[in-house]
């Protein structure tokens, strides 16, 4: 292809998968107790969750302008253009920064407002590859993906409210009450930002609520569309294995992929969170 497809680690694409797909992945920075790490470069998941449980001060940020332009300049040595697919503008200023920097590249770099994160962003990368192989020009490629950006849905439930409290998403009082009553918030990402969807008692009810919500989406918003169903999780691999089994039983062949949640999201959910969602795809 004469267009390079690039994204960031919030897509869940590992180094190995990136090489197989022929895409380029920019690591997201995570700061732990004042030291900056790069996801998938010098920051492993086991270390991240251990520090999180220990109560470390953890914050996330966007890639530096220098990291972005360095990647683009390198890719333009071998490609006519670059399409960059950062995490949703609803959760980060990554898109705004990248779009501003791209203005200096005379149309050779296009940045799409993906409105997505995690596995739906992975699906957008797949769609970008499909469309690029069909020869779609760079400007049309970005436009097509942005038009389809909202054709996705995510629901996510954390085990504890503690990390939402740390991130300022809820008040300490609400977190304390939720812990005592075993309240689990079911959150949704529709269009890029995180919103409250429902409150339930316990993870069993949370799973039932998420299944019900996605089933409703599939029967209405996505009825008759080419759709793939995904899952994600945080923490130990056993959490993912158990969640994968439940997804396979409920959705059968529609379920195609489960990924660890990006550490940017895990910073707010903590370990043990589960998520499911769907997205339309280029058939």
Can you offer a commentary on this structure?
This protein has 283 residues and is α/β, with parallel strands linked by helices. The protein folds into two domains: 3-28 and 63-147, Dihydroxyacetone kinase, domain 1 (Rossmann fold), CATH 3.40.50; 152-280, Hypothetical Protein Tm841, Chain: A,domain 3, CATH 3.30.1180.10. The chain contains eleven helices and 13 strands. The protein has helices at 15-21, 45-53, 65-76, 94-102, 119-133, 138-147, 162-166, 172-181, 202-219, 237-251, 263-269, and strands at residues 3-8, 24-26, 29-32, 35-38, 58-60, 81-85, 109-111, 152-157, 183-189, 194-201, 227-233, 255-260, 274-280. The protein has a six-stranded mixed sheet with strand order 10-9-8-13-11-12, with helices on both faces. Strand 3 and strand 4 (35-38) form a beta hairpin. Helix 5 (119-133) packs antiparallel against helix 6 (138-147). The model is unreliable at 169-178 (pLDDT under 50).
